Amino acid sequence: MSQSAFGENSSNFKFTGKKRSPGSVSPVANFILNIIFIVFMALCMLPFILVFIISITDESAIAANGYSFFPEKLGTTAYEYIFKIGDQMLNSFGISAFVTIAGTVTGVAIMTMYAYALFRDGFKYRRFFSFMAIFTILFNGGTVPSYIINTQLLGLKDNVLALILPLCVDAFYIMVLRTFLKSSIHESIIDSAMIDGANELKILVSIVFPMSLPGIATIALFSTLAYWNDWFNALLYIRTEKLFPLQYLLSQVQSEIDFLVRNSSMLGANASDAFKSVPAESSRMAMVFISTLPITLAYPFFQRYFIQGLQVGAVKG
Asked: What are the transmembrane regions (predicted)?
């Protein structure tokens, strides 16, 4: 009797509270987090927006009121001044795009193969090549030895390869990618593929590369940024204008504008009045906007791989 009564009472018992899965966030906390992230995103976007607004602000308004989100007078003088060299600008944009794509693809391929060799415990010379990579991180030969090797030994002076090869391989990225492979790919997967008859190249292309896409995408993004923003190698090795990358061309234009503005008083009254109207500040911001816009548009394509990398880290942790 007592057991049946207990059974009836227990069957009539209902849990009225809402079940919450482990790790879930309450609606209030989710709303607060969304507000925080929106504010943070706005703070990150404000400098870029300000740069664009200044680039379309008339130079006289900047001289009178400084930088402002709400300028008194707008104008496209800066962009007109920059695109007067439209053919050279288009050519430099193409050079930068080619160097960025070719350098990133080549560098990522080399660094992935290098990291894969260091990842394999059965590789005979793994410690030697690990030491060489770490040694180059700690000790750098410097600009002068690099210049001598690239120009005299490799013959890269005034050659588009001079914009690609010096940035092609980064030892730090290799070590980062090796660590990612260690944490995301188990050695037993490689052993199983070898038992099935796959060689090292087949394993790298069919197994390692697809499973390490988040790490490779991260390295690819860093390499893309390095190639797109590079102007120093062009300063060292490039003399022909048709090989100028975009960043170096914009730096040359800005240097000429600054020189004209500083020395306008020495060129006579008429020249002084003419050069005072040169859009020094707005053109500087226009160059920043032009040079950063392609990378800003390319970044969302890498975002999902970063999310996958975070998920892999969470699972492994």
From this structure: 28-56, 93-116, 128-148, 160-181, 201-228, 285-302
User: Phi and psi dihedrals of 204, rounded to 5?
Assistant: -65, -45
Domain locations in the chain as residue ranges: 27-75, 82-316
Q: What percent of the chain has pLDDT over 70?
A: 79
> What residues have CB less than 8 Å from 198, skipping those under 6 apart?
206, 207
User: Where is pLDDT greater, at 81 or 120?
Assistant: 120
Question: Which of the listed CATH numbers 3.40.50.450, 1.10.10.60, 1.20.120.140, 1.10.3720.10 matches domain 82-316?
Answer: 1.10.3720.10
Residues paired with residue 57 on neighbouring β-strands, in sequence order? 74
d(CA 82, CA 64): 23
- Helix extents (H) in the chain: 2-12, 27-55, 59-65, 77-82, 86-119, 126-138, 143-148, 171-184, 187-195, 200-203, 209-211, 213-229, 232-237, 246-262, 269-276, 280-298, 300-316
Rounded to the nearest 10 degrees, how much is the dihedral formed by the CA atoms of 294, 101, 95, 143? 100
